[in-house]
Amino acid sequence: MVSLIPFPGRAAAAGRFERLLRPQLSGMYRLAYHLTGSRDDAEDLVQEVCTRLYPRLEELEKIEVLGPWLARVVYNQFVDQRRRRDNSPVECVGELPEQASELPGPEELTDSQLQQEHILQALFRLSDEHRALIAWHDIEGYTLEELAGREGLAIGTLKSRLHRARAHLRKLLGEPFSPAIRVRETGD
Amino acid sequence: MDCSDFRSQLDEYLDGRLVAGHEACVRHLEGCPDCRSRVASERRLREALRQLPTPMPRGSFEDRVLRTAMRAAPSPRRGAWVRYAAAAALLLAVAGGILSLRMPPQAEATLATVPAGGHAEPRTVRLVLTAPRALPGAQIRLELPDHSEFAAYKGQRVLEWTADLVEGPNLLEVTIHGPGKGVALATVSYRGSQRTLPLPLESTAQTRTRNEPELSSEYQHA
């Protein structure tokens, strides 16, 4: 029986990949969750991104600031997924996030939790594209320049899309936004 | 500036992107309680968005993601190695050149090289190191000919690493890019002993001209 000598590429590459990616995974997951609205989908999205990135380790190692770069990859992967899935030009009304069903009952909710649930419900009624921009900019705090990246997406276009996304969100929330929840639909 | 003008620039104002119109917005806000209220409302919304909760991923998420990514990646897998081990033995019978590497006094090894699959790029080189006994922590160094590189390490033609060699044959498979000819250098170091052997990466015909022992002896230490 011939014994197998591990080639250094495999073990060493795995270590290098882990050192680069592990500190970034929680941020990638958080963004993925706010993009997808589902823990399962968020985990799957991060998994798909990491699986695609592993063979590109050398490219990863050349990225100076990895966080926004990875976030953009997650964002682009999400947008690509949804575009492939939804060929319809009609805006998709997303499903309610898992978060809503995981919250305690209405009588147990604080005002803050009610507010969060209200926002989440509105957020996941946005189109994927609008929600993705708000998740990117207003929830995760990345800049539009970081989203544009080296590919040179037009900042002006992104700004106007973000503006429309916010306007839609405000409309769904009822403007002006107030910390006090006016109506909570229990669905009962 | 009236309220309509201000509200059309509200996002820009709150994002800090206004340059020319910033002062005008500030002056408008000073005299307009409705727009001040609107700004306060927008700020509350943005603060609430930043504080939206995220459910924790399922247990061992990070370990699971990394492990799956690395397992799914197109790199050598153990299953493939086992197949190559059998293939290597066959190739040795046909084209293998056997080079002896003596590791005095306690360590000995036989090293064989097999150029596999002709000279199309990239190509795979398989090495068999036969150790008379276990050599834990042996240092292995591979230096490829000029203008060659390891497929897994672009631009790199020298690799050094530590491996535990077991008694008997130890197979190593290396995928390289480069010209069809040249001599690689393989060095095995163990507890202060070191031997370097040239590994010709020439054509099969040239390799056959070498003095070849029987295949069975390839798995015996020299």
Automatic annotation (TrEMBL), chain A:
Q: Which UniProt keywords apply?
A: DNA-binding, Sigma factor, Transcription, Transcription regulation
Q: Domain RNA polymerase sigma-70 region, which positions?
A: 28-86
**Where in the sequence is the signal peptide annotated?**
none
Residue ranges of every copy of the RNA polymerase sigma factor 70 region 4 type domain listed in the record = 119-169
Q: Which Pfam families match?
A: Sigma70_r2, Sigma70_r4_2
Q: Name the family.
A: Belongs to the sigma-70 factor family. ECF subfamily.
What name is this protein filed under?
RNA polymerase sigma factor
Q: Taxonomic lineage of this organism?
A: Bacteria, Pseudomonadati, Pseudomonadota, Gammaproteobacteria, Nevskiales
